[in-house]
Amino acid sequence: MGQNRLFKMTVAEMFAAYPYAEDFFAFLPVRPQPELVLADLFARLDEDYLEELGLSRAGLIRQFTEFMGKMEEISRQPEPVTSITILGGHDKDGVEENLALTIEAGEIVCIVGPTGSGKSRLLADIEWLAQRDTPTNRQILINGRQPDSKRRFAVEQKLVAQISQNMNFVMDLTAAEFVHMHAESRMVEHLEAVTANVLEIANQLAGEKFRPDTPVTALSGGQSRALMIADAAFLSVCPIVLIDELENAGIDRRQALQLLTAKQKIVFMATHDPILALMGERRMVIKNGGISKIIATSRQERANLARLEKLDLQLSEIREALRRGEKLGTIAFAFD
Ligand SMILES: Nc1ncnc2c1ncn2[C@@H]1O[C@H](COP(=O)(O)OP(=O)(O)OP(=O)(O)O)[C@@H](O)[C@H]1O
């Protein structure tokens, strides 16, 4: 919006065109007169109010202009992502993948394959929306089209969120400050309630609870993963979420994935874990750097998954017992 044009508008015209502007003027003790031109509104502001706010007239005008600019940027919503397509490149020996795989919003796709086969490389191709310019020569389409370079390198409206093994928090904030900061940058309403909700959900996901005032740098691997997943589900606008292994220890993995898909995220998860591998609708098998197969999780596999989860639960209980310093007697595997 042109700044001059904005300041020539009346208050009523501005509120009609930019409803969020009302929030900015909420601090005024009386509602501004609708017929007042904005430039006059600022010019006539009482010195006492300004003093109370601790701002000069010019400072307030600058803040208003910045606020309107930021709000306009946020309200200019990009087209929602409904699908992502991977167009095949080649494996490490240059053999073509011959593939066009489309994944819809709300779907989980797992990536399996031996160590060093190229799972992380595939995640990186998705993260960078590769355009035949990575070692695999793959191309990624969004909603069936080549994403424009502005979207590809966007910082504000990033398409892809990465939840990796090491979160490497750079800032020394508490968990609550971290979430609050994100919520603030997303300009969500009811900041306190949203922050509390994200922390609550993260704590439900994390096996070991943490407090809002725990520094993020002191969170365990599982706790920080839980926090990032809750954050990705509730505060991030990124429609695509990449997960590079989600270890069993300390996180409710099923609930974490359900949370993300309920928010219509497209989830790609590289894993060596059989339970996670079967939690997706499909799994890609990576071999020698190439996508060699795409397997839909069968009904039989889903039935196996339920049994594997029971087995896993039993294994977790044994793990916990050992952690508590207990000794194990004979184990009865009664998972059926
Ligand atoms: N199609 C390809 N062409 C060329 N190089 C590739 C290809 N795919 C993967 N690579 C390279 O192979 C190496 C190993 O790949 P990557 O790290 O992705 O394996 P990984 O399956 O994630 O292993 P791990 O399970 O140990 O994490 C990397 O250097 C990667 O860049």
Automatic annotation (TrEMBL):
Coiled-coil features, chain-numbered ranges: none
Alphabetical UniProt keywords: ATP-binding, Lipoprotein, Nucleotide-binding, Transport
GO MF annotation terms: ATP binding; ATP hydrolysis activity
Keyword rRNA-binding included in the entry's annotation: no
InterPro entries hit by this protein: AAA+_ATPase, ABC_transporter-like_ATP-bd, ABC_transporter-like_CS, P-loop_NTPase
Pfam family, one: ABC_tran
Gene3D superfamilies: P-loop containing nucleotide triphosphate hydrolases
SUPFAM superfamilies linked to this entry: P-loop containing nucleoside triphosphate hydrolases (SSF52540)
Domain ABC transporter: start-end pairs: 69-314
Source superkingdom: Bacteria
Family, similarity comment: Belongs to the ABC transporter superfamily.
Name of the protein in its database record: ABC-type lipoprotein export system, ATPase component
Organism: Dendrosporobacter quercicolus
